[in-house]
Design goal:
This protein is α/β, with parallel strands linked by helices and 776 residues long. It contains 27 helices and 13 strands.
């Protein structure tokens, strides 16, 4: 042959076996091969691996491009940020030289105080003050809303139980990061800590001013000429100490103007008066008030709360004891082996008793003995169940009971301690009240002036509004002096919040995160391309292996050609392998179909360009060389190619025969290999209309008369109507499927259509398989 055939062999025999001329028997219809469903998840996984193997170069190239772009974007968008941290120290209790206030209460409120300071650190007025010092910081200056940016990016953290607050900020510029942290810390110190100190100083100045005004008023009221002591009761400056037995000297408190002694003096021994005169009644009154609050308010409430807790624990424990048994425990008891054995014994004794009772008298000694045994066994069963149930319930309730007992014990101990504390507080209250009543009259007078509503600050009442006003103003002045001194000490005390560390040197802490994100982005690029390839292949479902064909339709795979049509003419090794596969296909067709009377074999495909012309011409050449009188007909009238394989001209052919312009016998061309060829001829619409019905039957019948086998190269089965007409008039149909060209759903439709036409024999030929697949 002159064409690019691969089936021509010079030494092929041309004898015609007798079996070839035997009369054709009835052609039984071949049983269709059932469609095999895909192998589930395992088959899908193998198919995905096959797709990845087929497109590894595409995945490598495109994945490198996409992954490189994604990795560059991740590296640029997620650069390693610099972080700087400043530290503030917050004392758990206020530090004061005067030691005023309740430090335990301050420690209790420490968590709230820390949260308040953290909120103030990110408050708007602090961030605004920080922005005024960050005008040259580019990281903040480039933001549309710097306040919102700082509120989101500046982090304030603290650990529970710690006195340290951390101020952190992350950014790409180390100098900007440090400047932001320093500015926020300095703004907080200036706007919160220093402002609080300034307010204390202003308060101290106000107290000092009021104290000076009160001192001037007292000096003006108590200034009397010498000799007026009896009238006013005020001792003038430079007065001498009174003689023994005279009234006591005026009392001077905190540098205030001395008050005159009362007109009536308590008749108390000199030694007791000297001792009590050293006491300040204000502190005694304060102790009395505090002790009374403890006795009348706090301790009774605490005692009642402790009693309630003890009663609640006892009630819970009692409820736990009276609680019904757990159904699960009851079921476990019923299923216990010894209980089941006892149940069997009870059932056995009961049955014996019932049998004996029905057989004789119920009052017979033996029957009564069995009844007693039955009752004894039932009591034993009940006792066994109770014992086991008690054991299960004790195990179940032991933990909860221990907790309730411990809770009750704690409540009882707390109640005892509170009652002891109440008794001790009442004793201290009685002692303080007696001490207050025994204070000499000058001290009582001052106490009455400072606490006019206190019932324990009583004593001899002094008449006269002038004396009362002087005493009241003197007490106010004393309180102002005390507040002035305590405020000054508080100002001089260290602040509760102070800077422990300014902004640290910025360091890169997220470098690992940036590298991981970049690597992940690169891998995601490869994964994206791989998923795209697998998704595309899954949707298109192109034939990628012999396994895909075996599950694609009802027709069996009868031929596997390890060569593509274009490779047979270029590579001698592949051409030899293709010849062997074609010979195997010819052996199958001859032994399975031709030997059973089939004479016409149609070679088609689901769509075009799937190797049907390659297979048809190769099969016909192999049949001719093996001794069969073979005619190959090019019935692909629209796109004929067999004349190119044979190396002859496409002159008069099938189209002319169908139009009645030529005789079928005279249009057949004889090839040197012994193969006879009827080309397609010139296509026309009249030929298409004639390729149906009786005209087509007559042409095919005339073509088959002198030949052992007629191989018809038809059009694609799913794209042309005449291909169906030709295929259903043949005894056998070969559907070709080409590697990476044929789509599995279309191949299934083609094989289903062949099965629907009830053609006796059919099969699939796989073109472009691997060498290992061709060994099947």
């Amino acid at each position: 042959m002159n064409g690019p055939t691969f089936a021509t062999r010079a030494d092929a025999p041309h004898a015609h076996p007798a079996a070839h001329h035997a009369p054709r028997a009835a052609t039984p219809r071949q049983a269709a091969k059932p469609s095999v469903p895909p192998g589930g998840d395992a088959a899908a996984g193998l198919r995905a691996l096959t797709y990845l193997r087929l497109h590894w170069l595409l995945i490598l190239f495109c994945g490198t491009l996409v992954g490189g772009g994604l990795g560059y974007g991740a590296w640029s968008l997620l650069p390693s940020k610099y972080e700087s941290t400043a530290i503030l120290h917050v004392s758990s209790a206020p530090v004061s030289i005067a030691s005023q206030g309740n430090k335990e209460q301050a420690r209790t409120d420490f968590v709230t105080f820390v949260k308040t300071q953290a909120a103030l650190l990110k408050s708007e007025f602090v961030l605004n003050a920080a922005l005024r010092t960050m005008r040259d910081v580019g990281t903040v200056r480039d933001q549309k809303d710097p306040i919102k940016y700082l509120d989101e990016e500046v982090t304030v953290n603290w650990k529970d139980g710690s006195e340290v607050i951390y101020i952190s900020f992350k950014g790409h510029e180390p100098n900007d990061v440090k400047a932001v942290v320093d500015s926020v810390q300095a703004a907080f110190v200036a706007e919160v800590v220093q402002k609080e100190l300034d307010e204390k100083r202003q308060f101290h100045a106000k107290v000092e001013l009021q104290m000076q005004e009160m001192q001037k008023r007292l000096e003006a009221k108590n200034s009397r000429p010498p000799g007026s002591r009896a009238a006013s009761g005020v001792v003038p400056a430079g007065a001498t100490t009174p003689a023994p037995g005279s009234p006591p000297a005026p009392l001077v408190v905190d540098g205030a103007v001395p008050l005159a002694p009362p007109a009536v003096v308590l008749a108390a021994p000199e030694s007791i008066e000297n001792k009590l005169g050293k006491l300040d009644p204000r502190y005694v009154i304060q102790d009395v008030v505090q002790l009374r609050q403890e006795v009348e308010r706090r301790l009774p409430l605490a005692v009642r709360e402790a009693e309630r807790k003890a009663q609640a624990a006892a009630a819970k424990l009692d409820a736990l004891k009276k609680a019904p048994a757990d159904p699960a425990a009851v079921q476990a008891v019923e299923a216990a082996p010894d209980v089941l054995a006892q149940v069997k014994r009870v059932s056995f004794v009961r049955k014996r008793y019932e049998v004996m009772a029905h057989a004789g008298s119920e009052n017979a000694p033996g029957v009564l003995s069995l009844k007693a045994d039955w009752e004894a066994e039932e009591k034993a069963l009940d006792a066994l169940k109770r014992e086991k149930l008690l054991t299960f319930e004790n195990l179940r309730r032991s933990d909860e009971a221990r907790k309730l007992v411990a809770e009750g014990a704690d409540a009882v101990e707390t109640l005892r301690r509170l009652k002891e504390q109440e008794a001790m507080t009442r004793s201290q209250l009685d002692r303080a009240e007696r001490l207050l009543r025994d204070i000499p009259d000058p001290q009582l007078r001052l106490a009455a002036a400072l606490n006019p509503d206190d019932p324990f600050a009583g004593g001899p009442q002094y008449s006269g509004p002038a004396q009362t006003q002087v005493s009241t103003e003197d007490g106010i002045y004393s309180a102002l002096v005390r507040q002035h001194t305590l405020t000054k000490m508080d100002i001089q005390s260290p602040p509760r919040v102070h800077v422990l560390q300014k902004a640290s040197q910025p360091v890169q802490k997220d470098g690992k995160k940036q590298v991981i994100a970049t690597v992940a982005a690169c891998l995601f690029g490869y994964a994206l391309i791989a998923v795209g390839v697998v998704g595309f292949e899954t949707l298109s479902r192109r034939v990628s292996s012999l396994a895909d064909l075996k599950t694609a339709g009802p027709a069996p795979v009868v031929g596997v050609i390890p060569c593509l049509p274009g490779e047979a003419g270029r590579d001698p090794a592949k051409r030899a392998a293709a010849n062997e596969s074609i010979d195997k296909l010819r052996s199958y067709v001859a032994q399975t179909w031709l030997a059973r009377g089939a004479a016409t074999v149609a070679v088609t495909s689901a769509t075009g360009d799937e190797g049907k012309s390659f297979t048809a011409f190769g099969l016909a050449s192999s049949l001719a060389q093996s001794g069969y009188r073979t005619l190959v007909v090019d019935f692909d009238l629209r796109d004929p190619v067999l004349h190119d394989y044979a190396g002859v001209a496409n002159e008069a052919g099938v189209c002319e025969v169908l139009r009645g312009e030529a005789d079928a016998r005279r249009s057949v061309q004889f090839l040197p290999s012994g193969l006879h060829l009827l080309p397609a001829g010139k296509w026309s619409d009249e030929a298409r209309k004639a390729a149906v019905g009786g005209r087509l039957d007559a042409v095919l019948t005339r073509l088959k008369e002198p030949y052992d086998c007629v191989v018809i190269h038809g059009h694609a089965l799913l794209t042309a109507a005449e291909s169906v007409e030709v295929a259903r008039r043949c005894e056998a149909v070969l559907v070709c499927a080409r590697y990476r060209e044929t789509r599995t759903p279309l191949l299934r439709k083609a094989t289903d259509r062949v099965a629907a036409m009830e053609i006796p024999y059919s099969g699939v030929v796989y073109v472009g398989a691997t060498e290992s697949e061709a060994l099947c």
